[in-house]
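Project outcomes to date are best conveyed with an example. Our students and postdoctoral researchers have been running inverse folding experiments weekly, and each run begins with a structure described purely in tokens. The record below, which covers 372 residues, was selected by the lab manager from last quarter's runs and is presented without edits.
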């Protein structure tokens, strides 16, 4: 089985400059491909394959205007072309939204490194056109690497790489766990485990308050330094924006860590099956009162992390049907309460059952295959 490994890079100043060049070239190649595809589609032409675009880009590199493309590895632009074409194919097959151009300000700086040319020594890796870069922890040596990517998270550079490892499957219990996710609590399980919403903790609220202050501060500085219709970025604005970027990184790390701990605790119980509801994230975000809270919960990220951890342990993950009434169904008598509102946090049934709404939904999800 292929498992990923993400380690921090410790480049020198010269190496970091080359990393930024590589990331910028990758972004340019991706946008160049999207522009070509859009113009070709608008004129009624057929889909341009990545092989044709690579040939065109090779001819472009030979001109003096685009000679700077030789400063980075050829594999970076080649993979960026493949990624853009793959995104367009998914859009045509209605598997994803239309791909967007990568903004220099908002997109995540990243690029591909050829897996064949990736060399690993003790606490160092060889990156094309960058050289040997020190790493914070050891990557498995003597194995086949897949899809190496170098990325910048706002503070540090990281290398993500997949490698083949043996899958060790431990014996599972006969228990079926139903999981109800939401905004009040991140996850409520049918076995009694409840995982809180980390965004309601004092540490996260304190960081968010500081973030709001810094955002207001940088907004005022932009208004003070406005020249006509143009905003001037001063050194002080750059400093405040760096603080904002670091705060976003810290908040993202806290949320990711909480999701990892939650999914690990669920998988550690060794159930034979895990059942959770099908999440319509796009539809949920349309609720303007709850959209911000739903985005902070990172529910899709929760599902994807739980999915791969269940796969490692050999646990079957089932997604219940979108129209399965897990919240409206009584876990005791099986009656369906049609007039249940979102504000009703306690489920009360005519049979005398009084139970927490989310816990009732998780019990019903654990019995999903028996009912359907």
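After processing, the design step wrote out the following sequence:
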């Amino acid at each position: 089985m292929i498992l990923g490994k993400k380690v921090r890079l410790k480049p020198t100043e010269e190496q970091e400059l080359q990393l930024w060049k590589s990331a910028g070239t990758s972004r340019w190649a991706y946008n160049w491909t999207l522009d070509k595809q859009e113009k070709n589609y608008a004129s009624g032409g057929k889909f341009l394959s990545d092989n044709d675009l690579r040939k065109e880009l090779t001819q472009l590199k030979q001109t003096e205007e685009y000679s700077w493309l030789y400063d980075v590895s050829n594999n970076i632009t080649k993979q960026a072309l493949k990624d853009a074409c793959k995104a367009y194919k998914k859009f045509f097959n209605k598997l994803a939204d239309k791909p967007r151009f990568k903004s220099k300000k908002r997109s995540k700086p990243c690029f591909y490194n050829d897996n064949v040319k990736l060399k690993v020594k003790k606490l160092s890796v060889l990156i094309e056109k960058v050289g040997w870069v020190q790493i914070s922890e050891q990557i498995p040596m003597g194995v086949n690497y897949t899809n190496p990517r170098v990325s910048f998270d706002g503070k540090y550079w990281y290398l993500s790489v997949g490698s083949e490892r043996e899958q060790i499957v431990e014996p599972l219990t006969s228990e079926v766990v139903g999981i109800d996710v939401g905004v009040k609590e991140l996850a409520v399980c049918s076995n009694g485990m409840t995982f809180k919403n980390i965004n309601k903790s004092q540490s996260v609220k304190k960081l968010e308050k500081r973030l709001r202050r810094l955002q207001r501060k940088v907004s005022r500085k932009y208004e003070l330094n406005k020249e006509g219709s143009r905003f001037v970025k001063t050194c002080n604005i750059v400093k405040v924006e760096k603080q904002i970027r670091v705060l976003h990184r810290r908040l993202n790390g806290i949320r990711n860590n909480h999701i990892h701990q939650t999914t690990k605790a669920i998988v550690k119980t060794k159930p034979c099956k895990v059942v959770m509801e099908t999440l319509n994230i796009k539809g949920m975000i349309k609720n303007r009162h709850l959209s911000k809270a739903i985005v902070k919960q990172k529910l899709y990220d929760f599902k994807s992390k739980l999915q791969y951890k269940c796969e490692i342990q050999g646990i079957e993950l089932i997604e219940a049907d979108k129209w399965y009434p897990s919240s409206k169904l009584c876990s005791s008598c099986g009656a369906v309460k049609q007039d249940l509102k979102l504000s009703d946090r306690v489920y009360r049934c005519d049979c005398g059952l009084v139970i927490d709404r989310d816990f009732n939904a998780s019990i019903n999800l654990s019995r999903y295959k028996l009912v359907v």
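The chain is about 45% helix and 20% strand. Residues 176-320 form one domain. The training component of this project remains on track.
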